[in-house]
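Internal ticket #5521
Category: modeling
Description: The requester needs a full-assembly model to guide mutagenesis choices. All entity lines are attached below as received. Residue total reported by intake: 537.
Assigned to: D.W.
Attached entities:
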Amino acid sequence: MADRVGIVEVAMTPGAESKDNFLDQVFRTSKELLDKAGISRDEVGTVVSASSDVFHGGVSCASSYYWDAGAAFLKNASRQDGESLFAFIYAVMRILSGNYSTAMVLGVCKGSENPANDMLTHFFTDPFYQRQIGLNETVAAALQKREYMTKYRITEEQCAAVVVKNLGNALKNPYAHVKKRVSVEDVLASEMVMEPLRKMECAPKSEGMIAMLLAREDVAVKLTDKPVWFKGYGSSMDHFYLGDRDLLNGQLGTAAAKAYEMAGITNPKKEIHVAEICEPYSFQELLWCEDLGFCDRGKGGKLIESGATGPGGKIPVNPSGGVLAHNPYVTRGLYRLAEGFLQVRGQAGERQLGRKVTTALAHGTHGFAGQCHAVVIIGK
Amino acid sequence: MEKEFNTFKNVIRLPHKYAAGPTYTKFYNGLKESKILGTRCPSCAVTFVPARSFCPKCMKNLDTWVEVAQEGEVQTWTYAGKDFFGIPGKAPVVIVLVKLDGTEGSFLHLIGGINLESADTVKKALRKGTRVKAVWNEEKKGHMLDIKYFAPLSKKR
């Protein structure tokens, strides 16, 4: 790459229901970002937003509602639907195009206002072959979980251990939505939602407004003495019809391979110091760890048992609490990236890892059972 | 306790209509005749079931039609003991992926003809590899649920 692109600053809201309305939250988050970075709105070159306005907001058309609240008023700017990390890479490319020295990424989601997650995800299906059978994101995840458990003898206890770890980690994260000390027994005793998936194994419905400032290298180093550089990116999308896919060998491996190659990473187990990954359902953290190369295929259960993915482990995964602790549906990928950014900077507060963190991985997924994956590598 | 600020409620009803196009229409017409139809890619030879009009990998039109088997093996399933939004019919239901004989992928549908009282009763009748067969509704509407469900084959067969 001709120029490096750095993340300069991040601002984000907590996941619990806010008394503020949507626009005020967008405005305050955007303003907080500019204040923290010490620049005016005029100095922001362009804005790329991530949102799903009609589905997740029931409001307006694309970005037209929140544009002026999001520092994008009258700017040459754009919006991205789908995985929010797409908005990040779009903003990176606008800087690399040479036309902008700074770009703001804005992600908006006020989950507390929405109907139940699966009332929306039911409509993410096609109206012909899958909607008529009642498919939604949790049904797809339950089908995937049983297949995973059957094929690799993954246990209910191993899946529940992800919930125990992540909700426990979230106790140290002021932005997390669900945070508590729970036991494997508590998880196993929670209500069966879609057998074999229990309520505590499914992510909540959260709020999450997030803004991130990116800058070209020469500008980034003037704005902060702690820029975190963009190093690599990869994404891949599998078949839409669930039955066409191998649910245990999806596209995360492909996405990760592209991101690792771009970042020059050959041994992710050693070179990735923290991974913030998107696990809307407990067992998916185990499966995604396999795809990311943190352990061999089928060994995700053993990996969490070993403690390697805990905050003091060899490859800490979701020290923030992950998506099980905070699920702003539309912006969860950007939240993972923000957490990776804070860890690299050494500014993750109580959840800052004890180990040295120079390289972080952020992962986002959308679609059912990991249809689409995006991976971003950042570092010093 | 009264909230400090107002909340406005709004229920949005949006009537849509969806063009099925020639391929999906032919598939649904097949269901009316108690046939499950797929389309085969001339390039990679994958059979797509339910029928699709194109192969995303080879970028080929799929106009080779095949009637596929109505029997196959259970890949995975989930049990819902309570109604949920979009549920086909009423709880309890079992949603399943069935690998129909002679096809590469799996077919998303329902399981019936067994005791659905609880996930445990279902587990007694169903596991990975259990042989199942399509059971049809008498009255056909050109809908996925013209197939009433897939039921396990008796072990004698």
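Resolution: model delivered.
Comment from assignee: Chain A touches chain B through 35 residues (CB under 8 Å).
Ticket closed.
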